[in-house]
């Protein structure tokens, strides 16, 4: 009588390995970036970033909006549309944002030269 080894245990082991490694692949595309960032308190910068890369918020004085490109835990803000109010005592750094990189609950915001210009903490859950 011939015995044939079942291929099912190998296939199951492969599937388990792939699922385990998939958990190490990092954050699903864009999920680290999407959400509420900063503080909505008067004079404080904040952003709301959507799944499709659109964003809106304030630099603490002027309203900001745009349509960025999300790649994993980074966003390229692209062109930012902003109101132009004169704001005394408000640092308007967020309007100069070129990119943002997320690590944990902190987004580091960089300008066109790649220099860090500020950070935003994730708001909410």
UniProtKB/TrEMBL annotation:
PROSITE patterns: PROKAR_LIPOPROTEIN (PS51257). Residues 1-25 form the signal peptide. Residues 40-116 form the DUF306 domain. The keyword Ubl conjugation does not apply. Residues 43-63 are annotated as: Disordered. The keyword Ion transport does not apply. Keywords: Signal. This is META domain-containing protein.
């Amino acid at each position: 009588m011939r015995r044939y080894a079942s291929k099912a245990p190998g296939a199951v082991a492969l599937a388990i390995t792939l699922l385990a490694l998939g958990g190490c692949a990092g954050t699903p595309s864009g999920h680290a970036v999407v959400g509420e960032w900063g503080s909505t308190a008067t004079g404080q910068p904040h952003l709301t970033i959507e799944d499709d890369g659109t964003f809106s918020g304030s630099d603490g004085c002027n309203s900001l909006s745009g349509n960025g490109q999300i790649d994993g835990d980074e966003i390229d803000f692209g062109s930012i549309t902003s109101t132009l109010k004169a704001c005394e005592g408000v640092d308007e750094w967020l309007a100069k944002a070129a990119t943002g990189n997320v690590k944990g609950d902190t987004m580091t915001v960089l300008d066109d030269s790649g220099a860090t210009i500020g950070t935003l903490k994730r708001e909410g859950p």
